[in-house]
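Weekly sync, protein design subgroup
Attendees: M.S., D.O., the rotation student, P.L. (late)

Item 1: inverse folding check
M.S. brought a backbone from last month's batch and wanted to see whether the design step gives back something sensible before we order anything. D.O. pointed out we never logged the input encoding, so this time it goes straight into the notes. Structure tokens as presented (246 positions):
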């Protein structure tokens, strides 16, 4: 037996092309996602949810953090850690009495990994709004014109922008009405003015009571120390008042 083992060792060491294979590494990088829903009508409602994965090193240990808090507009949110889950989650919401008009923004500072400089990276998320009040008038023979705030470029260290938009006209938003809505969809950048031909509006019965624009934005934060994606789901709403024509 001893001679057989010795022969096997000699054969292995005389081979020039061999590689020692260790156990598969369980290393996983940290990553995070932020989901922001904004509903801008008579006021602006912000609802934020975020998920953070600390990462796992080559020894199977979770990553350490210099600061686990997610800051929103300067307020620190501590993570909620659910039993049996490797994800940390954060939740925040706020209502702003701004009438839903003009461009706005939301500042966040994601969790900071151990070894990264504090206070970390602050990100400003641009938010589109209506230009003008929530109430608009429309008369037969005139196009309906809905103006939105000028497109705002992503602020460093944010890259990305609008991906999709949809315009809906009917008696309620989100398909909640009883009548069949008029729907127009687009991809990429949205127009500064949604202009709806009056002939199209005549196809909606009864006349539309609301106009709703939904926009989706996708961003990537470049220098958070780990992959960080930000998704914004924005809703803009107008009330339509039909003016009788003589």
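Designed sequence read out in the meeting:
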């Amino acid at each position: 037996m001893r001679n057989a083992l010795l022969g096997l060792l000699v054969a292995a060491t005389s081979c020039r092309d061999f590689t020692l294979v260790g156990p598969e590494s369980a290393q996983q990088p940290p990553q995070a996602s932020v989901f922001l829903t904004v509903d801008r009508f008579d006021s602006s409602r912000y609802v934020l949810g975020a998920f953070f994965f600390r990462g796992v090193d080559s020894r199977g240990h979770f990553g350490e953090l210099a600061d686990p808090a997610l800051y929103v507009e300067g307020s620190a949110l501590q993570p909620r850690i659910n039993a049996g889950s490797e994800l940390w989650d954060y939740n925040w919401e706020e209502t702003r009495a701004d009438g839903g008009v003009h461009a706005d923004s939301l500042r966040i500072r994601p969790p900071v990994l151990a070894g990264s400089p504090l206070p970390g990276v602050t990100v400003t998320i641009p938010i589109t709004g209506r230009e003008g009040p929530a109430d608009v008038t429309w008369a037969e023979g005139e196009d309906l014109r809905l103006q939105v705030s000028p497109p705002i470029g992503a602020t460093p260290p944010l890259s990305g922008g609008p991906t999709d938009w949809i315009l809906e006209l009917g008696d309620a938003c989100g398909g909640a009405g009883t009548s069949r809505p008029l729907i127009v969809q687009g991809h990429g950048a949205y127009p500064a003015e949604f202009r709806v031909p009056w002939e199209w509006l005549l196809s909606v019965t009864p006349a539309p009571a609301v106009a709703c624009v939904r926009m989706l934005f996708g961003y990537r934060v470049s220098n958070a120390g780990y992959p960080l994606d930000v998704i914004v789901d924005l809703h803009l709403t107008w009330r339509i008042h039909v003016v009788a024509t003589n």
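Discussion: The two ends are 110 Å apart (CA to CA). The chain has one domain: 26-243.
Action: P.L. to compare against the previous round before Friday.
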